[in-house]
Structures are given as structure tokens and as C-alpha cells.
């Protein structure tokens, strides 16, 4: 079995609508230049807002770009990020993925790169994590609960913990954007390449320096057709009760 294994157990047409939506929600990078109505983009962001947020803090913001001049300004930044990715991490197919299939994916990435200025809409989820509030009593319980080994571990993993805490507040909403786009017949794909030049992206878009960005999601009407996703079988990835 490889990444090219087609989702074989598709739900019956009369089953829950969400499951056929998820099983055909491929990354769609070839977009028509036709505009997406503002009210449709608002539906996508509404779906994001409905997503669960870690701690229910809901400190997310969404930058939505549809202006042609702004998209043209962002296009060179997108190209630099994609070129950097394709020259390094993206130079070789992931283990288990057929080379021809990976070649098709790279071709789609290059097409999106070369036509980025024509992207109808770009959604950038942002988050500024609130300053934590601690008191002496709470810190005492924290130390007692974790113990010396736990405290030492947290001291070395605080950056990762913070990133995951923010991500838990943002990515459920991002997934809702992708699901809503698929349900509305829109093409979309999740990328984080912009993080390689995040400061330049934030400057171009006027995003505050203390606010983090978590994705750049191109959205538009698809040139191709939706189809079944190709993923590893569930039996290959599940560990019951323990690893």
C-alpha cells in the first residue's frame, strides 16, 4: 500500500454528507481566474469561526485578499517560497509515493506558482495568543503536578508547546475552511510556504508584527474535477490501546 491507495470504502450516497465531502477533498491547485463572490468567501470564514478553538480563546483574525493589485504584489513572494521548497524539501517524492504521481503534484504546484497573480482569493489565518495569567498558588500546583522531570521537560519544549497551543486554536478553523470550500464546489489547498518569508508577507499585508500567521490558502473555482483522495489504509496507521 502507498499514498496512491484510493479511498476504497466510500460512504453510501445516503450516508452522512460530511464523509463523501472529506473523501473527495483533494488539494486543488489549478484555479480559474473567475472571481469568488464576497458572500461566498464570508461563508468560508464563517465556517472557520465555527471551528473549535483551544481554550475557547477565539483570538483569530483572517486576512482575505481578493484585490488584483495586492495579489500581483504577493506573487513574487509566493514564487520565492515555492522555489525554495521545490529545491529542498520538495525535491524528492515522499517515501511510498509513486514518482509519476509526485511529478503530477509538482506540476500543479508550479502551475499555481506561475499563475498566482490570477488567484481569485487568498485567506491567511492569523492568531495572537493572549499573555498567560499565573499566580503563585497556581504555579505551585503546576510544579507539584508535573514533578521535577516534567518541569525540566517543559523548560526545554516551551517553544513547541506554545506553537501547538496556538495551532490548536487556528487549524480546526482552517480545516473548516477547506471542508466548506469543497462543499461549495470551490478548489482550495493548505500551504505554509509563506512562513519562509513571513515578515515580508506580514509587511505587505499590514499584519501586526506580534501576530502570527498560520497558513496561506488559495481559493477559487477548480479547473479540474474533484476526486477520491489517496491515503494510507486506516489499518496501517492505527495503534489500539498502545503503540
From TrEMBL:
Every Nitroreductase domain range: 26-221
Pfam families with a match to the protein in the record: Nitroreductase
SUPFAM superfamilies, alphabetized: FMN-dependent nitroreductase-like
Transmembrane segments annotated in the record for this chain: none
Protein name: Nitroreductase family protein
Lineage: Bacteria, Bacillati, Actinomycetota, Actinomycetes, Kitasatosporales
